[in-house]
Write a structure and sequence with these properties.
The chain has helices at about 5-30, 30-55, 60-90, 100-115, 125-145, 145-150, 155-175, 190-210, 215-235, and strands spanning about 120-125, 180. The chain has about 240 residues and is mainly α.
Length: about 240
């Protein structure tokens, strides 16, 4: 038995381990800062399992399934748990709404495994991008919960629906047919244009995290989403 063919799978399992830790710290301690660090480590594992599989030529149907199952934990369950913790902190009427992200992520990942169109780019919002956006939004909400909780009810009733709309919209985008470029490097567009877009998103993420801690992740991934939506809808304009 060749050991090297199992290396990508071990890295994928590291993804699941860090995703589970992210979920645990969110639910047990309400510590979204540490939870997001573990989620970022899961994202690193998610990048390197595919990278390692390509370098070692260690592809297998089992490895693909393991990768997707691990992604469900790290980028489906973990961010939805973070969001429920944040919504509970501001007395949102239905924090369980954030759990809709989980079945949407499961469907998206199962679809990805059998969709031959998604070799160099994505169809629908990638689960890691969705997870990091939700994590950033949850972190912002939790760190400002004391302020949000004290605002007048008239303002709350205007803010609360926005959370519900965001969660439902993201869940829809996960399973949508909207093309989205990959942040990992593969693309159907020109290399220069693709690298420019990645550079802008990464730069916004770095600046955002420096200025607003992990809340800045929502800003960067929101920009990623807007770029893709703009590309999609401008093609529909005659």
């Amino acid at each position: 038995m060749k050991i090297r063919k199992h290396i990508p799978n071990l890295i994928s399992l590291g993804n699941a381990f860090f995703g589970t830790l992210a979920t645990y710290y969110a639910l047990k301690y309400g510590d979204l800062f540490t939870a997001i660090i573990f989620m970022l480590l899961a994202a690193v594992m998610d990048f390197f399992d595919g990278f390692t599989a390509r370098k070692l030529q260690a592809f297998s149907p089992l490895g693909k399934d393991i990768d997707s199952l691990c992604d469900v934990i790290s980028f489906g369950v973990a961010p939805s748990m973070m969001m429920t913790v944040a919504l509970e902190a501001i007395n949102f009427p239905l924090p369980e709404l954030a759990l809709v992200v989980v079945p949407a992520s499961v469907y998206r990942l199962a679809k990805f495994n059998h969709d031959t169109r998604q070799t160099v780019s994505f169809i629908g919002l990638p689960t890691p991008a969705n997870a990091l956006f939700l994590a950033g939004l949850a972190y912002y909400t939790l760190t400002n919960a004391s302020v949000i909780s004290t605002v007048p009810l008239t303002i709350k009733y205007k803010v609360y629906p926005l959370y519900g709309i965001v969660v439902l919209l993201l869940s829809y985008l996960l399973i949508s047919e909207i093309p989205m470029f990959s942040l990992k490097g593969s693309t159907t567009m020109s290399r220069a244009g693709h690298l420019t877009r990645i550079g802008v998103v990464v730069a916004v993420a770095i600046v955002g995290v420096i200025l607003w801690s992990f809340s800045g992740l929502a800003l960067a991934l929101g920009l990623y989403l807007l770029i893709n939506l703009w590309d999609h809808f401008k093609k529909m304009i005659p």
